[in-house]
Amino acid sequence: MLKRDLVNAVAEEMGAYLKKDVSQAVDIMLDTIVEALAEDRRVEIRGFGSFSVRQRKARTTKNPRTGKVMKITSRKNLHFTMSKSLKDALIQNGK
Question: Which keywords fit this entry according to its UniProt record (predicted)?
Answer without folding.
Answer: DNA condensation, DNA-binding
